[in-house]
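Incident review: delayed structure delivery

Summary: a single-chain prediction request sat in the queue longer than the usual turnaround. Root cause was a stuck worker, restarted by the on-call engineer. No data loss occurred. The affected request and its eventual output are reproduced below so the record is complete for anyone auditing the incident later.

Affected input:
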Amino acid sequence: MQLNISTDYAIRIIIYVARQKKVVPSTELAKSTSISKRYLLQIAAKLRDAGLLGVMKGSAGGFYLPLPSSQIKVYDIICAMEGTVVISSCCRRETGLCNKESGGFCCMHQFYITLQEMIEAYASNMTVDLLVTEITI
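Output delivered after worker restart:
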């Protein structure tokens, strides 16, 4: 499993905005995160739609966090960018993707389910606030 580069950028964008504690112009955000402005705006639109990034229009406009950074979970950012995040077809809820669901044997099913739960729990407990204090951009 590998996250898309846009997901990595989304996390960087949110962290940068959280650190500034103010409205951040798109030009500053693009330059500071080394993301092209065009790509940044595409990512920001997804984050906005997920309620994780606010947009203020006008000459003093830019991006801000609509929630406290302590309430924004890394898992929410990942889901906003990736959609469904699973490490194996065994973890998907759809029928027929794992032999175990159709009465067969899957020697890896429990391992994948447990690993998936661990990843989700870790990312769900990791807030942007915690990342801001741990990571230097």
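Verification: The chain is about 50% helix and 5% strand.
Action items: add queue-age alerting; document worker restart procedure.
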